[in-house]
Specification:
Order of helices and strands of chain A: HHHHHHHHHHHHHHHHHHHHHEEH
CATH class of chain A: Mainly Alpha
Number of domains of chain B: 1
Shape of chain A: globular
CATH superfamily of chain A: Sodium/glucose cotransporter
Largest sheet of chain A: 2 strands, antiparallel
Number of helices of chain A: 22
Shape of chain B: elongated
Distance between the termini of chain B: 18 Å
Strand order of the largest sheet of chain A: 1-2
Radius of gyration of chain A: 22 Å
Number of strands of chain A: 2
Oligomer: heterodimer
Strand content of chain B: under 5%
Number of domains of chain A: 1
Helix content of chain B: 55-70%
Chain lengths: 484, 62
């Protein structure tokens, strides 16, 4: 790409400036009487219809980190890395059945966060706090990882040093401050359209340059055999790990503050149902994107890190300007989720810490002001984590974060279907799942899988799901004693 | 049929995708894709279609 590097950087800068302008203009888009209310700044006034919700949720669920990390995992280990595909399929029937009920509850009672909903249902400050803290600590490393997605792209473009990342993120922080959720919602249109174009181009063009899909799979198969690990199919002892990772991740996906923000911001329960039907279009994209990992083998790339597979593949096989377009798509792909995540975390802080403990009499304008400042602090915190701590730290925390956030499911979801559970039970269950899950990850050397054996066979299973089962059992047991 | 009855349709993707021995094969290959890959990708439109059937039966309750 060296000869096309100027063109690549030019195209990249053009799109980056475009979305920056859009980020600021978004404050005037579908303008309400005032942005100085939390559900205007932080939820876009709960007015987003089918299309906006589709772009927004698609834009913040399928993150830049996903675009970099899923092909990287497939490149390294093969079939096992594909669990992201069943995960992002089975998540939608769950969304279809649960999220419209959650939306109705939140909209009718004016809730902005998951912890608000839990407080409204159970009236327990302790349970509200557990859910809120879990949301914030699970989201922080996720924001930091969006930055590593951008770093991978900057590196391949030859923009070294930390300043490009710092500049990109500070710009994002400023327009999120002024426009709130409207900024990522508007930018998501551009981001998603660009990602679709890039992936369709990659799927259509790259295999012909590499000798077709049969050859792509064959090349990957050879690479795994030469390496002596990984493969195009799963080994028997990976079955349970694959399935439990897919199920656990699917149940956790819409417990995160950023995905829930997209749900709460929609204008009706029916908007969410329709989106559960049409959001899988992104999953199709993800499945094809994952195959880029195998194309990396077919192209014979030599990589310093598996995370470079997508940017290096684009730089090798696309001409200068289109490589720039593809890199812009990935970088902007980091901005949308990072913005929504920081808004989700800011909403939690404002509603469930500030209003709950520091200033219960806070006005709507006061709430919006606190949330805006918090979103700035959250993003700068994530930037500092990436600049000054090893990336592995964010990776380990994100892995733990997905196990933690799954433990809020009983408190948030069960109450939509039954009034049987009691707050002390759910709190005890959360504690068992949260701390037990953390301990299991720790004793397994910071890996998310625990070995189990039954019938003489030994398997590994996703710790998040084990922790959730313990969580539910504890919640039921304590509730049963309380109800007597 | 009512939405509550049809909801069992939504179990199909869970059964089809979480029981890995169903599809952990190389053959039959389709367009160069081993079965493992195209089977799972095929579940994307299948799941969307099943969800649409359940949605239609709901009759817009809100």
């Amino acid at each position: 790409m060296t000869e096309g590097r100027g063109a690549a950087i030019g195209v990249f800068l053009f799109f980056f400036l475009l979305v920056t302008v859009m980020g600021f203009v978004a404050a005037y888009w579908r303008r309400p009487k005032t942005l100085a209310r939390l559900d205007e700044w932080g939820l876009g006034g709960r007015t987003f219809g089918g299309w906006i919700t589709w772009f927004l949720v698609g834009g913040d669920f399928y993150t830049a980190y996903t675009i970099i990390a899923v092909p990287a995992l497939v490149y390294s280990v093969g079939a096992y890395g594909f669990f992201a595909l069943p995960y992002t399929i089975i998540v939608y029937p769950f969304v279809f059945l649960v999220m419209p009920l959650l939306w109705k509850r939140a909209a009718s009672e004016g809730h902005v966060t998951a912890a608000d909903v839990v407080m409204g249902q159970y009236g327990s400050r302790a349970l509200e706090l557990a859910v809120a803290i879990t949301g914030v600590v699970a989201t922080m490393p996720y924001i930091a990882l969006q930055l590593t997605g951008m770093t991978a792209v900057f590196k391949v473009m030859g923009l070294n040093g930390e300043w490009p990342l710092a500049v990109a993120f500070l710009v994002l922080a400023v327009y999120t401050y002024s426009s709130g959720l409207r900024a990522p919602a508007l930018i998501a249109f551009v981001k998603d359209a660009m990602i679709y174009i890039v992936v369709i181009a990659a799927i259509a063009l790259i295999p012909s340059k590499l000798g077709g899909y049969a050859h792509v799979f064959a090349a990957a198969d050879e690479a795994f055999k030469a390496k002596g690990s990984g493969g195009l199919l799963l080994a028997k002892d990976q079955y349970l790990a694959y399935a439990s990772l897919a199920l656990g991740s699917a149940l956790a996906a819409f417990m995160y503050p950023h995905t829930l923000t997209g749900i709460f911001a929609s204008n009706s329960a029916n908007t969410i149902r329709k989106n559960a039907i049409f959001l899988p279009a992104y999953t199709l994209l993800l499945g094809l994107l994952a195959l880029l990992g195998y194309m990396g083998h077919a192209a014979g790339l030599t990589l310093s890190s598996a995370n470079d597979v997508v940017p290096v593949l684009f730089a090798t096989l696309f001409s200068g300007w289109f490589a720039g377009f593809a890199f812009a798509a990935i970088a902007i792909g980091a901005l949308v989720p990072a913005a929504v995540m920081s808004i989700g975390a800011a909403n939690l802080f404002t509603r469930n810490f500030w209003k709950a403990y520091l200033n219960p009499a806070v006005t709507p304008e006061g709430e919006a002001r606190v949330a805006k400042v918090t979103s700035l602090v959250v993003k700068i915190g994530a930037l500092l984590v990436i600049l000054f701590l090893p990336t592995q730290f964010a990776l380990d925390l994100q892995l733990l974060g997905s196990i933690w956030i799954l433990q809020t499911l009983p408190a948030l979801v069960f109450g939509l279907f039954t009034n049987w559970f009691r707050a002390p039970g759910l709190l005890a269950g959360w504690a068992v799942g949260f701390f037990g899950g953390t301990w299991l990850v720790y004793v397994n050397g910071l890996k998310p899988l625990q070995a189990v054996s039954f019938g003489g066979q030994s398997f590994t299973v996703y710790i998040g799901l084990v922790a959730l089962l313990a969580n539910i059992a504890m919640a039921a047991a304590v509730t049963a004693t309380r109800r007597r | 049929m009512k939405r509550t009855r049809l909801i069992v349709l939504l179990l199909i993707p869970y059964i089809g995708l979480l029981f890995v021995p169903f599809y952990n094969f190389r053959d039959p290959v389709l367009f160069g894709f081993p079965f493992f890959y195209w089977y799972q990708i095929a579940f994307v439109p299948v799941t969307a279609f099943l969800t649409w059937i359940v949605y239609r039966a709901g009759g817009g309750d809100d």
